[in-house]
Amino acid sequence: MQQLQVTAEPQDGLTVVRLRGELDIANADDLRQTLRSARREHGDLVILDLEGLEFMDSHGLSVIISCHKAATEAGGSVSLAAPRPIVRRTLEVTGLASRLAIFDSMEEAVAVRIAERAMGGEPATEPA
Q: Taking every annotated instance into account, which residue ranges of this chain make up the domain STAS (predicted)?
């Protein structure tokens, strides 16, 4: 089992959180706290970079849902970028893929969210 590594940083007015390793019951609460802190420090327009995420269980899904709810209530959004096929399948099977914007790459996610912000529009749940 590869331990979860999380980094959070601002990028072009967005909060980018990169996940590497496995997200499960053992580290879900740590991620929940990191996401709260990142939103507090960098804002509620959040992109989760999932390229390095190798596994996610229901506890990880719960953390993403909680972050999505909190960010949208504050006028922001949560987007997912570059999920591996196994993680994308989990999102599809649970129905989260229809509630959250999922982009094939970080570059696409950042570009779409910056464009939306510049136009003053609401964050879309579908990639543009």
A: 4-113
